[in-house]
UniProtKB/TrEMBL annotation:
<dbReference type="Pfam" id="PF13621">
    <property type="entry name" value="Cupin_8"/>
</dbReference>
<feature type="domain" description="JmjC">
    <location>
        <begin position="151"/>
        <end position="307"/>
    </location>
</feature>
<dbReference type="GO" id="GO:0005737">
    <property type="term" value="C:cytoplasm"/>
</dbReference>
<comment type="similarity">
    <text>Belongs to the JARID1 histone demethylase family.</text>
</comment>
<dbReference type="GO" id="GO:0005634">
    <property type="term" value="C:nucleus"/>
</dbReference>
<dbReference type="GO" id="GO:0016706">
    <property type="term" value="F:2-oxoglutarate-dependent dioxygenase activity"/>
</dbReference>
<dbReference type="InterPro" id="IPR003347">
    <property type="entry name" value="JmjC_dom"/>
</dbReference>
<dbReference type="GO" id="GO:0045905">
    <property type="term" value="P:positive regulation of translational termination"/>
</dbReference>
<protein>
    <recommendedName>
        <fullName>JmjC domain-containing protein</fullName>
    </recommendedName>
</protein>
<dbReference type="InterPro" id="IPR041667">
    <property type="entry name" value="Cupin_8"/>
</dbReference>
<dbReference type="InterPro" id="IPR050910">
    <property type="entry name" value="JMJD6_ArgDemeth/LysHydrox"/>
</dbReference>
<dbReference type="GO" id="GO:0043565">
    <property type="term" value="F:sequence-specific DNA binding"/>
</dbReference>
């Protein structure tokens, strides 16, 4: 049976179901302890009732189910260019991607549904609109609010104020659109599907069904090796297909966890879990990828693994390359979406933002921080970044020789701490972090306190200049950051203070 079938094939051994929890009664610490930290999936109910998208984007269907209101999209969101996957044709490990206007997508979808092709009766292709950067494209239309459980999102916070890449060789126009953020809308008719994959950067994702139903099949990370081919290079593409035993000898051993996600339910996809997804009805979903202190090590581990592959691939031209490391890093950015320098600049910003938060809220009785997971969230964040930074220290990308020849853009984004702290992009990032933590109630600031501070100007740009000494305090600890070693030293100094 092909992917469009939507049912588990004979070799797919389903051993369990994803837990379902009422999201309204799950506290943030419970979500952390039960799902985010142990890296386990969950389906959350009751979190989308106030979303405008659930009303505007859907029409009443049968038995209380709703269906997509395609006219609403055509009229209100006439995007000239959306990405569409053709679910009937494969390109490497994914579906072939097409680009078309929203109107074209709708016209084809309507035509297909009237000819019944989505049931597989006819040859017409199954089109699945994916990775639509809806929030970036229509910022004034508030389709939904991110549930509190998912607001500790460093990836999107960062991309709201910083570019993913500095290197001019990498940061071209197409990249800028693709890296604009990781907040997406998906829309696909019954029968559309997503091949087996683990998410970008090995981030977490959450996915909410505005209408429709999805079948998910998950494999826990400790079993990932079972779905790779005998050379351990590529994963199975469609688990419902007749997977070749010769090519994928261990596939039969994989034990799958299943879930049918209903309308208005949100699924939390943990880091590194391979999954395949089928739309069982015409479905619209909203989907974010994100990471934070709990899964940052997944991101680094992926970058490191992909780096080794990128390097091995061009090892034979090392001797004739002026800047072999630079080439590896450019290839890594192209293949994985981020390279060591992008990631280092990213974590440097988060170290500084967390140190500022720590300085701002520190009270005398907090002087003795402990490093356990129950310690203050900013201490926890810094400890997790420290773990990752310490693994980066020995890497060739950060050797003196290679740091001497990195692009001017990368170098200037890295080093001068005062400049970073006074930069408007950084301030926006730090404010977003501060707000997010106030929101989830993990920072000491309540919303009221935030408002007071705002009035005093403490969260405004003036904060760092006038009554607040945080720039001096931090630059007293360190003036320049040249690589992961400095970052580790800065974190140690900040936590010792
Ligand atoms: O809904 C889909 O088709 C895929 C979603 C997905 O892979 C995810 O949310 O991680
Ligand atoms: Fe995914």
């Amino acid at each position: 049976m092909g992917g469009g079938g939507g049912g588990a094939g004979s070799r797919v051994k389903v051993v369990g179901q994803v837990e379902r929890v009422d999201g309204r009664s799950l506290t943030y610490p419970e979500f952390v302890d039960r799902f985010m930290k142990p890296n386990l999936p969950v389906v959350l109910t009751g979190l989308t009732s106030s979303w405008r998208s659930c009303e505007d984007w859907t029409l009443a269907g049968t038995d209380g189910r709703r269906r997509p209101n395609l006219d609403f999209f055509a009229q209100n969101f006439p995007s000239p260019l959306v990405q569409v996957a053709d679910c009937s044709s494969r390109e490497f490990t994914d579906h072939k991607r097409l680009e078309m206007s929203m109107q074209e997508f709708i016209d084809i979808s309507v035509r297909n549904s009237s000819t019944g092709s989505s049931n597989g009766d006819c040859e017409a292709s199954l089109l699945y609109l994916k990775d639509w950067h809806f929030v970036k494209e229509y910022p004034d239309y508030v389709a939904y609010t991110t549930p509190t459980l998912f607001v500790d999102d460093w990836l999107n916070m960062y991309l709201d104020s910083h570019p993913m890449h500095r290197d001019p060789d990498i940061a071209n126009h197409k990249n800028e659109i693709n890296c604009a953020d990781y907040r997406f809308v998906y829309m696909g008719a019954k029968g559309t599907w997503t091949p087996l994959h683990a998410d970008v950067f090995r981030s977490y994702s959450w996915s909410a069904n505005v209408c429709g139903r999805k079948l998910w099949l998950f494999l826990e990370p400790s079993q990932s090796h079972l779905i790779f081919d005998r050379n351990l290079r590529s994963p199975v593409y469609d688990i419902n297909d007749d997977v070749s035993e010769k090519q994928f000898p261990d596939f039969n051993k994989a034990e799958w966890i299943e879930c049918i996600q209903e309308q208005n339910e949100i699924i939390f996809v943990p880091s590194g879990w391979y999954h395949q997804v089928h739309n069982l009805e015409d479905t619209i979903s909203i989907n974010h990828n994100w990471f934070n202190a709990y899964n940052l090590h997944w991101v680094w581990n992926l970058l490191h693994e992909d780096y080794k592959v990128a390097k091995e691939y061009i090892e034979d031209i090392r001797d004739i390359c002026d800047d072999f490391e630079g080439l590896c890093q450019r290839n890594l950015a192209a293949n994985t979406g981020m390279n060591f320098y992008d990631f280092f600049i990213f974590i440097t910003r988060f170290v500084l933002a967390n140190v500022i938060e720590l300085y701002h809220i520190r009270e005398p009785e907090d002087a003795k921080f402990n490093s356990t997971e129950t310690a203050h969230p900013f201490v926890y964040n810094l400890m997790q970044i420290r773990n990752v930074a310490s693994k980066m220290i020995s890497k060739e990308a950060f050797s003196t020789k290679n740091l001497c020849i990195i692009s001017e853009e990368n170098r200037s984004a890295m080093s001068d701490v005062t400049k970073i702290l006074k930069d408007d992009s950084f301030r926006r990032l730090w404010m977003s972090l501060s707000e997010a933590y106030a929101y989830i109630g993990r920072g000491r600031r309540s919303f009221d306190q935030m408002r007071d501070l705002n009035q005093k100007g403490c969260l405004s740009v003036a904060c760092l200049k006038s009554d607040c000494n945080v720039v001096d305090d931090i630059t007293f600890l360190m003036l320049e950051i040249h690589g992961p070693e400095d970052l580790v030293r800065l974190i140690d100094a900040a936590l010792r203070e």
